[in-house]
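Input chain follows. Return structure tokens only.
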Amino acid sequence: MNQKGGVGKTTCAVNLGAALAREGKKVLLVDMDAQANLTLHLDVDPHGLERSAYTVLTGRSTASESIVRDVRPNLSVLPSNIDLAGAEVELVNSVGRETLLRSALAPVIEEEDYEVVLLDCPPSLGLLSLNSLTAATEVFIPLQTEFFALQGMSRLLDVVELIRSRLGHPIEITGIIPTLHDSRTNLGREVIDEIRNFFGPKVFRTVIRKSVKLAEAPSHGKTIFEYAEGSRAARDFESLAEEVLSMNGSGDAPAIASSATNRSRPGTKSLQ
């Protein structure tokens, strides 16, 4: 999650998910953005969908009915389309509107034994993002290594604290992913240092570097591993996946939260 657009949220969700799936973890990706970029990135046509994240949130379908399974080995997706843009207005008077996604995802995560759930959030702090946060126990923030990187971060930190204190939901920011990094510039290196000084050990050692291959892959409906397996971008995401898997010290997949996490299963991690 990051309310700032263009920071690499979808790129991180897709390629981290793909990297974890390549490690043998059963992964579910959830597209919570009406632009459906994650859905398109995996070569799923959003225009022909009868069921999607929108129909799940509005009670027109269950998550189990709506998931597109095995779009890649070990990798499934709950897709999105433009209909999701109307969900915030449609759900404004719904009882428990902040936790609709959590309620919908919990059964399918339990029944199908997903080890990792990653939610790709829209660039806003509205109801869709709030649903993602309350479905998750952890938040990953892609943060570009550019001048305005930390602008608006205080608002996001406040929202996470609000969910923890007011809603009593156990959620933590556990990972900052430096993205769009150009190691050739002094500015890039300075911003990396500033991010590490601000967030300390929450910042991943892996830095996702700028890459033409990474930018091209979505237009082909491919992950970076399918489009350019030997590229430095693929190596970056392999390294990031290794860090994620080592976070709980056992090498098991973490219990992903701002992608729905099943709190009754301690081996499952939910990331946003």
